[in-house]
Amino acid sequence: MLPLPAEPHPRLPLRDTARCEGPRSALLAFHRQAGPHTLVCGPAGHVLAPQELVADATQVTMAGRTSARVPARERDLTSALLARLGLAAFHFPHPQHADRCADDAVLWLRLGLTQHLMGAVLAHLGERTVGDTALLRQPTTKSALAEVAVALLEAESGLRDAAADGPDDTTLRLLHRQLTTSDEALLKLLGANGLTAAGPGATAYVSQVLADLYAPPLPSPEAA
Amino acid sequence: MTRLEHRLRVLQQYVRDEAPALRAAAQELDGHPDGSTLYPQVPLLDRLATLQIPRRYAQDPLVIEGHEYFLTSAVERVVFHEEASAHGDAALLLSAPGSLTAGMLVAALGDDAQQRMFFDRVRARPTWTFLAMTEPQGGSDAANLRTTLTPCDDGFRLNGTKRFIGNAHRAPLGVVTARTGPGPLGIRCAIVDTSHPTCSAGPLATLGMRGALGTLDFRDVPVPEAHLLGRHLSPTRRGMWGWLHAFNPLRCVAAAMGVGIARAAHSYARQHLPQRHDALRRRLDTLGARIRGVQSLTRHAATAVDADPANAHLPAAAKTAAAGLAVEATSTALRLLGPAARLEHPLLDKWARDAFGIECMEGTSHVQAMTVFSALARTDTALR
């Protein structure tokens, strides 16, 4: 990955866990930073976490407010695909939605996952040829990878330069969209290998579900 | 061509009426931990199984309001697959019995005896078939093809591994691309029966198009010489040049399925968005305009391929545009319906995963771009 010449940042360990170890380890780190037996909710009360954490947690936290879990009122949203990846999802009926999604941790996590995906793409393309030419030597491949690298540098710069209380919701939505677009570009380079449930496509899928659950929602009609 | 002639509108309406039954079945298959072992009985798919057979070998065309449909022209296939994807489900179409992909190769390269042998079997009862080209190490790059057909006393022996093959785990019969020698002329297609004990097949767990794909492994599988397609053709016509042409109509079908997925997502979002949210509805209007544009391009491509099967750039352009459109439409719908739209609207999540499957079908966008550029280079003196 191309590094930024910047100061250390408290979210770097989370990004690096995602980059080096992939989605499950990153999600473990993400929820554990909220404290023991605690799961982090998205702005509308949704949670995505490793199954063992969901089984173990007794409380959820959202925008700094912590509540005891009420399993009888929770709605399980775990799909067959998420279960296959060892993950669980549910909706916690939070009494009040967060005003804004100040926590940028999910974006750092997703940035690391996109870097993880790029590592998988580089490894895959490094072994492939078209005719007698290595795929990594093809101008179109170089260009596509460079564009993603630029997008990731832009995203990390945006995250580092955010205000002390985190980026505003518009910036958060934009950064989520940039990372999703980068994942899509990387998946195209993997071809059908990006489609397998056990392959790098699963990293992109988990990242997209995270964006879906943890990105700030679009403004309501009244606010718009 | 954007407006369909009456005969095609009749076909379109028939599919539109029948396709909704696919949707519930597709959700069940997608939600199953091992969907690859399931195959739901849906009348439209049973009917599709005995269509797409050349008129000469077909006995039971689809007849609606006095019109006959064999589903062998690219235009008919495009209308059928777009509508079945828009009102039903694209992944289930790929899992259906019949001869969509392999049949195109057999029709393009087979002699009379080969076509009769293949299509008689497909016509007798709903039969899954496969077209096995992609390999683990080289994808669909023909130059890197490693599967071999080696001559022996009673024909050939087939050795190699194929991956990402539609219905590989269900089909008793299909077409395999393999090398009989070096270079593009050394690539041949053969009809292969998978009942031989040294041929093994298995399902492939995927994120999108779940249940549709599998793998094939051949170890000294006997292939009679009579099963090698194109033996009546010149070496250039039966080799890579010949079978690449069969992919042009397939790219139109893949594009049609992409347009269908985009229409399904667009329609779903329109139905579930709050009426009062004008700003979001305007975004859907913009998406709707793009869908109509790609739909028109796909129909133009199909018409061009029916007129000249060697036309490669229009199907490549349509397939590229439609693959991007399907991803754009499903991700836009998910974003507008969020938060948690992927989990609260599992059908939309499924279509978003299936949309990437369109990108992978019949060559990725990077491969299609090369075809489009080749056509551009032929027409522009500055590039020659």
Automatic annotation (TrEMBL), chain A:
Domain of life where this protein originates: Bacteria
Protein name: Uncharacterized protein
From TrEMBL, chain B:
UniProt superkingdom: Bacteria
Residue ranges of domain Acyl-CoA oxidase/dehydrogenase middle in the record: 131-221
InterPro entries on file: Acyl-CoA_Oxase/DH_mid-dom, Acyl-CoA_Oxase/DH_mid-dom_sf, AcylCo_DH-like_C, AcylCo_DH/oxidase_C, AcylCoA_DH/oxidase_NM_dom_sf
A GO MF term: acyl-CoA dehydrogenase activity
Occurrences of domain Acyl-CoA dehydrogenase/oxidase C-terminal (ranges): 244-374
Gene3D superfamilies: Butyryl-CoA Dehydrogenase, subunit A, domain 2, Butyryl-CoA Dehydrogenase, subunit A, domain 3
Keywords of this entry: FAD, Flavoprotein, Oxidoreductase
Keyword Oxidoreductase: yes
Keyword Oxidoreductase attributed: yes
Cofactor names: FAD
Pfam families reported for this sequence: Acyl-CoA_dh_1, Acyl-CoA_dh_M
Family statement: Belongs to the acyl-CoA dehydrogenase family.
PANTHER family in the record: ACYL-COA DEHYDROGENASE (PTHR43884), ISOVALERYL-COA DEHYDROGENASE, MITOCHONDRIAL-RELATED (PTHR43884:SF12)
Name of the molecule in the record: Acyl-CoA dehydrogenase
Lineage of origin: Bacteria, Bacillati, Actinomycetota, Actinomycetes, Kitasatosporales
